[in-house]
Design goal:
Growth Hormone, Chain: A, 487 residues, mainly alpha, 19 helices, two-stranded antiparallel ribbon, 6 strands, single chain
């Protein structure tokens, strides 16, 4: 019996000991979703993240991809036969005399061996194109195919570009995905954006170097999937369980908008050099671009002043005169209403002035009206530049202020390299249409910057990370915080 009692006591002791051991174990840490739900998952940070990266990045990603495929289109073409410029024949009449038919349409790769349409004696045997090709410009004024003459015997080049860029892109895409898991979403996102910008610049500059052109095209093929996955992963990871499907819907709708935007921009810019450059500029805009846009607006007016049908010297004088009140207005509005909304207002005014100049050029109105419109645009662009300078100094922490400002000016300097291509387009209205769109993007983006008026400036990286936290979006009249007033 004693043995039985001992075993019972031992069992009871083990049970008690087990219970005690379980009670002394550390409680399981709450899941990240629970913590996120407790601190809030629909705050200002998530809103900015979803707008800038989930929506904008997805849109620009798909826009860049589809613009390239549109640039690789092959318009209708036929052999160029010299001599039509010396006759009164239309294009169709000349083709009837110089291009053989293949069924119901004209041949794309053959021409008659006689170009003298007044001589009908002798045989007219079809031969391969001897003087190049002509292209139908109904929808595209220039594509990669028409620029490089990748047609007829050279048409395989189009297939090679699309095939090899996709194959190389698969391998590079795996590398981009690896970087996202090993080094984080931010490096992956910056790498994908850089791939878009570098690719679109290279394809415009080096279409004659086929291996480099294929490599440049493969960068976007590699970045497209990881970029969408990266922004969607961050959006889903930093929102609560209930709203994950909404974030996925935002990204999907933004991608659809990117496809539509690719068609609309390519329609407005039928020259593939301009449309692809626009794609590069749009992806580049996800980096810091406020200062760049204002500089482009200011100096585009200077370069294009002789093309606006006004006295170029008077135009420069008028633009300089507009800068003086702009500096005083920056001082007044920044002190009275803060930095953020005056900066938004100056960008909107610059966009309105650009639109006004576009309309005046469309209606062929010159003279004093153009001078006044350029003065208004110069005024608003200079005001925006002054506000950007002030915000840049106040928002960056002291330990990185000069470095960050130097990086901004370096980025602006790189963007200024596109100035001659922007200001000296064949259609002198297009620069102002592009500047209008860019200024609208600036106005929208800068509205999310924190208000820095009457605030203690950040000194450390920690101060910079929390600067502006808790500020309402629609606040417009700056008030000093209590600790600033009593400190």
């Amino acid at each position: 019996m004693g043995k039985d009692i001992g075993n019972g006591e031992l069992q009871t002791l083990e049970e008690r000991t087990g219970i005690h051991e379980c009670s002394t174990k550390t409680k399981a840490s709450p899941a990240f979703e629970e913590v996120l739900d407790a601190i809030g998952s629909r705050g200002k940070f998530q809103t900015r993240l979803n707008i800038v990266f989930v929506c904008f990045a997805s849109c620009f990603d798909l826009m860049s991809v589809n613009m390239f495929y549109l640039a690789m289109q092959t318009p209708d073409h036929w052999c160029y036969v010299p001599g039509r410029e010396l006759s009164n024949l239309s294009v169709e009449e000349w083709k009837n005399l110089t291009i053989p038919r293949e069924g119901a349409s004209f041949s794309k790769c053959l021409m008659y061996n006689r170009s003298d349409v007044t001589d009908f004696d002798g045989s007219r045997e079809p031969v391969k194109c001897q003087h190049g090709w002509e292209y139908d410009d109904t929808w595209f004024s220039l594509t990669v195919t028409s620029q490089m003459n990748w047609v007829c015997d050279n048409r395989q080049a189009v297939n090679d570009v699309l095939f090899y860029s996709q194959i190389i892109g698969v391998a590079l895409g795996l590398l981009f995905g690896y970087i996202g898991d090993m080094y984080g979403r931010r490096p992956q996102q910056l790498l994908c954006l850089s791939a878009h910008v570098v690719s679109r610049v290279l394809v415009v500059l080096a279409p004659h170097v086929l291996p480099l052109f294929i490599l440049a095209a493969s960068l976007v093929s590699a970045a497209t999937g990881p970029m969408v996955e990266s922004v969607l992963s961050v959006g889903l990871e930093l929102t609560d369980i209930k709203h994950r499907t909404a974030i996925n819907c935002y990204a999907s709708c933004s991608m659809a908008a990117g496809v539509m935007l690719a068609g609309l921009v390519s329609w407005a810019l039928p020259n593939w050099n301009y449309s692809i450059s626009f794609a590069a500029l749009s992806c580049f805009a996800l980096f810091f671009f406020f200062r760049s846009v204002h500089l482009l607006a200011i100096y585009s007016l200077v370069i294009a002043v002789s093309r606006l049908s006004v006295n170029p010297f008077l135009g420069i004088v008028a633009q300089g005169a507009a800068e003086l009140p702009a500096h005083f207005m920056v001082n007044y509005f920044a002190a009275r209403f803060g930095r953020r909304w005056p900066s938004v207002g100056s960008a909107l005014l610059a966009a309105l002035a650009s639109l006004l100049i576009f309309c005046l050029l469309t209606e062929h109105i010159a003279g004093a009206a153009i001078v006044m419109a350029t003065m208004l645009m110069q005024f608003s662009a200079v005001a925006g530049m002054g506000m950007a300078n002030l915000q840049s100094i106040e928002l960056h922490p002291t330990c990185l202020r000069q470095i960050a400002t130097g990086v901004e000016y370096a980025v602006a300097g790189i963007s200024m390299s596109s100035l001659p291509y922007l200001a000296l387009m064949n259609d002198k209205r297009l620069p102002f249409a592009i500047l209008c769109a860019l200024e609208l993007m600036v106005a929208f983006s800068v509205s999310f910057l924190p208000e820095s008026a009457m605030q203690r400036l950040p000194e450390t990286l920690r101060d910079g990370a929390v600067f502006g936290r808790g500020q309402p979006y629609w606040s417009w009249k700056p008030k000093p915080p209590l600790q600033y007033a009593t400190g």
